[in-house]
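Practice problem 4.
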């Protein structure tokens, strides 16, 4: 019985390692070339999509994906889509979080435009 339990545990660990093996390896941080000055936006995170997540002990809470911020009073037309790379640590109430946990939060986001056309986050903090 103990051997069967160990085999099942080993299989689960191996499956988890397989699923996560590509998560830490991403070129998102290097695929954008920042241009211009850093901008800041404050508003509600109306959408947050996680595409890759691979936290490390040195950088917990690092994920990649997109978020959409709607400044107060701007409505849907004023929404700003922002790419989030693994270089940005996401905080909510002082705690490290994953992108989906930012949805419906009030946030301050600093970002820069990129040559590739996307706005790329440099700082994300929510309440």
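Answer key:
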């Amino acid at each position: 019985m103990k051997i069967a339990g160990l085999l099942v545990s080993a299989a689960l660990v191996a499956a988890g390692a397989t699923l996560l093996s590509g998560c830490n390896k991403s070129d998102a941080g290097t695929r954008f070339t920042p241009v211009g000055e850093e901008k800041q936006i404050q508003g509600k995170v109306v959408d947050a999509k996680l595409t890759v997540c691979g936290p490390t002990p040195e950088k917990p809470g690092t994920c990649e994906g997109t978020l959409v911020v709607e400044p107060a009073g701007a409505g849907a037309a004023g929404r700003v889509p922002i790419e989030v790379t693994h270089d940005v640590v996401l905080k909510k109430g002082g705690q490290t979080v994953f992108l989906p946990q930012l949805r419906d939060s009030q946030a301050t986001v600093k970002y820069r435009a990129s040559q590739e056309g996307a706005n790329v986050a440099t700082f994300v903090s929510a309440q």
